Amino acid sequence: MNPRCQTRIVLALFLAAWMCVTSSGCLLLAGGAAAGGAAGYAYYRGNVTEKIDGDFTTVWHATQDALYDLGMPIKKVSRDNLSGVIESQTGKGERVKISIEQIIPKIPTDPPQTEVGVRIATFGDQETSRRILQQIAFRAHAQAVNPPTGASDAGNWRIPAQTVPGPAAASAPARSGSAP
């Protein structure tokens, strides 16, 4: 083999080795970006949101009442005029974060709406989040229909605890006879 041909082969092998070494970092970076993107998407999907008819104050109180109905303790509360966050926990001890924000309508005469987002733990629990949102919507509607009557009741009032039948309650057999 002539020396010129050997030099070309060595140069080609060196170039191929150099490309493998330098592109392997890109491959790792691409793999890391894909994994990060998947984790980011899972985090994004963990926040379940719903628009609820009612102004911020009504939905804020409805959220607290819904948590009370569901036996979920209120751990932390922070709010301003048009948004707020309530933190609670599930029966299993998982952190629940409920974000509430008034939606400013494009047309001033449109009825008020408030967006409520529920996140359970880091990546969410769709079924439990929807159950909480269902109870908040139920309470917001009940408060809109049954506002406080007296001036002394306006600051702190609750409708007696009621819950919307969940999947287990809806399928439970009816009792017959008298209560024990």
Write a short abstract of this structure.
This protein is of the alpha+beta class. It is 46% helix and 21% strand.
Structural class: alpha+beta
Give the overall pLDDT as a whole number. 76
The side-by-side strand order for the widest beta sheet comes to 1-5-4-3-2
- CATH superfamily of the domain at 46-148, by name, is Molybdopterin cofactor biosynthesis MoaD-related, C-terminal domain
Biggest sheet overview = 5 strands, antiparallel
Helix and strand sequence: HEHEEEEHH
Q: Indicate the low-confidence ranges by residue numbers.
A: 150-157, 169-180
Furnish the topology, listing elements before pairings.
Elements: H1 3-45, E1 47-53, H2 56-69, E2 74-79, E3 83-89, E4 95-103, E5 113-120, H3 126-145, H4 167-171
Helix pairs in contact: 2-3
Can you describe this structure?
With 180 residues, the protein is of the alpha+beta class. It has a domain at 46-148: Molybdopterin cofactor biosynthesis MoaD-related, C-terminal domain (Ribosomal Protein S8, Chain: A, domain 1, 2-Layer Sandwich). Helix content is 46%, strand content 21%. The chain contains four helices and five strands, in the order αβαββββαα. The chain has helices at 3-45, 56-69, 126-145, 167-171, and strands at residues 47-53, 74-79, 83-89, 95-103, 113-120. It has a five-stranded antiparallel β-sheet with strand order 1-5-4-3-2. A hairpin with a 5-residue loop joins strand 3 (83-89) and strand 4. Helix 2 (56-69) packs across helix 3 (126-145). The longest helix is centred in the N-terminal third of the chain and has 43 residues, at 3-45.
